[in-house]
Amino acid sequence: MVTNWGNFPVVEKEMKSEDSSAKIKEYVRNNHDIITRGNGRCYGDAALSENIFSTKRLNKFISFDRLNGIIECESGVLLFDVLDVIVPQGYFLFVTPGTKFITVGGAIASDVHGKNHHAEGCFSEYVIGFSLMNEKGDILTCSRTENSEKFWATIGGMGLTGIILSVKFKLKNIESSYVRQESIKAENLDEIFKLFDESESWTYNVAWIDCLQKGKNLGRSVLMRGEHAFKHELPKKLQEKPLQLKKTISPSVPFYFPNFVLNHLTVKFFNFLYYYKQNIKEVKNFVHYETFFYPLDIVSDWNRIYGKKGFIQYQMVIPKENGKEGMKKILETIAKSGNGSFLAVLKLFGKNNLEAYNSFPIEGYTLALDFKANKKLKRLVAQLDDIVEEFGGRIYLTKDSMSKSSLTNYLQNVQNPKFISMQQKRIQNNEAS
After folding, report:
1. Contact at 8 Å (CB) between 179 and 226?
2. In whole angstroms, what is the distance from residue 308 CA to residue 303 CA?
3. Residue 88: CB partners within 8 Å, gap ≥ 6?
């Protein structure tokens, strides 16, 4: 049985993993309906198909140019492993999503974004090139100047152009492994949008939002903004080892929670505690990058909290000019439905790179929401889809497992009968019906 991080859907499919080009070529030439899977941390059904190729054995580093901040590795290397290598040397990832347990190949296939899209764009901005095995088993070197059509089709292409074998990308200089953070409470949607406008000069911005609030408290939230801390800014104790990695034993959720544990009341109670744990309007401090960028990674197997039926993450973006009106309607719809999101995250996207035409971000506001799988969820997703479409938005293919095709079918020039996912089949079936 195979599933991704949301434990929904669960399928009985074959998964193969190899570490040599010759064996991978043999696999590709002898199979159809293949999709590549990294570490299985996407939420939807995009990394599921009849034949799944896992890149977990493609986990070796190839080179690290410490002088120029360029690293090359196989596609199955985790961001977790990259960080362990580069942070002590004074480097960080230019762009990282909210978990470090994804593969470098997956970061390209989803063209991941982070808390800094408005300032520094997507992961693809810093990719120098990669090697790709196509449907014939041929290995192509892809960059902005070599096989450029395949390069841009693969970025955000969700694994439909072939199997990424290795990647070379740029790194960011840092002086410490700490982030100078400001955490500011907002009472409603008007205030949080005002804070985002005032914080555009900050490199990193993200807001937790209480999606169950109504009326004058609609959009009650906490904005976290940050910058990589310089060594001289740190308290003296932290200056002793400014590039220190945080080695901790992560607690684990040992079993799937019973279905009744996560409900409207418990989500409402969690949101109340989260908002009021900060008892003043604004807090300024220094936090380790693990805390700032990867708060959920602190707990292993946290997805089990949602029970055996699993959950979905729904992420959309609304163009900036419609952002406040669109988000208001989305939050009102969620609050009315009673399907509370245990975790809701609001971010601001900057202008999109037109060359990366399959990439998800467009200039505007993006909201990611976790919903426990239940009978009412499909109706809520359909309602949210209609709102996103009404305001000219789109949804993130990496998270999608049940949205309608008109919002998901923005992939261009990557159709390939050899490589196809369950997600693409679902979209095609929706269009046919």
Report:
1. yes
2. 9
3. 243, 245
